[in-house]
Amino acid sequence: MKITTQGNGIRIGTRLEQKIADKVGKFDKYFGDEGSLNVRIRPEGNKMVVEITMKLDGKILRAEARDEDILTAVDRTVDKLESQIRRQKTKFLKKKKEYPGIVNFLEDDGGADFDFEDEQEEKITKTKKFPLRPMSAEDAILQLEMLGHDFFVYLDSDTDSVCIVYKRNDGGYGLLEPEY
């Protein structure tokens, strides 16, 4: 598994990089060279934020944790990633062909901590249709704020593609521009 470590506002030394690689190394035996892990570390106040994004077979899993100590935050983030995989165990097992690495991880896990076999399948409870109107990203942010939503889907007037603006946890805004 390819592991990329980057620091935003912090320098990551080789010793820290090696310790992080050791902690996320548990995923390597299940996913091998097929997957990649991106570990981002950034300071936020007096705490360190560790974000791990795992890309595997075109699927993305992401977890984030905060702590005063970097290695503790890494441990908590790895635990969250494992928890996400276990929580979705039933879905992964139903789609074995789409998630072979994750299924191997779950089977070799020896039936760890918990399993949500009886969990009901998630269902769409509401559908909403709306017209896409061409607008700029700034106009979309204004609409997002006026509606009081966390995200807003719109047709970008410059690129003529469907885009999404969303509120970020840090108080800023994000823009999703799909490639198709």
From TrEMBL:
<dbReference type="InterPro" id="IPR003489">
    <property type="entry name" value="RHF/RaiA"/>
</dbReference>
<feature type="domain" description="Sigma 54 modulation/S30EA ribosomal protein C-terminal">
    <location>
        <begin position="120"/>
        <end position="175"/>
    </location>
</feature>
<dbReference type="GO" id="GO:0022627">
    <property type="term" value="C:cytosolic small ribosomal subunit"/>
</dbReference>
<keyword id="KW-0810">Translation regulation</keyword>
<dbReference type="InterPro" id="IPR050574">
    <property type="entry name" value="HPF/YfiA_ribosome-assoc"/>
</dbReference>
<dbReference type="InterPro" id="IPR036567">
    <property type="entry name" value="RHF-like"/>
</dbReference>
<dbReference type="Pfam" id="PF02482">
    <property type="entry name" value="Ribosomal_S30AE"/>
</dbReference>
<comment type="subunit">
    <text>Interacts with 100S ribosomes.</text>
</comment>
<dbReference type="InterPro" id="IPR038416">
    <property type="entry name" value="Ribosom_S30AE_C_sf"/>
</dbReference>
<feature type="coiled-coil region">
    <location>
        <begin position="71"/>
        <end position="98"/>
    </location>
</feature>
<dbReference type="Pfam" id="PF16321">
    <property type="entry name" value="Ribosom_S30AE_C"/>
</dbReference>
<dbReference type="GO" id="GO:0043024">
    <property type="term" value="F:ribosomal small subunit binding"/>
</dbReference>
<dbReference type="GO" id="GO:0045900">
    <property type="term" value="P:negative regulation of translational elongation"/>
</dbReference>
<comment type="function">
    <text>Required for dimerization of active 70S ribosomes into 100S ribosomes in stationary phase; 100S ribosomes are translationally inactive and sometimes present during exponential growth.</text>
</comment>
<dbReference type="InterPro" id="IPR034694">
    <property type="entry name" value="HPF_long/plastid"/>
</dbReference>
<protein>
    <recommendedName>
        <fullName>Ribosome hibernation promoting factor</fullName>
    </recommendedName>
</protein>
<comment type="similarity">
    <text>Belongs to the HPF/YfiA ribosome-associated protein family. Long HPF subfamily.</text>
</comment>
<dbReference type="InterPro" id="IPR032528">
    <property type="entry name" value="Ribosom_S30AE_C"/>
</dbReference>
<keyword id="KW-0175">Coiled coil</keyword>
<keyword id="KW-0963">Cytoplasm</keyword>
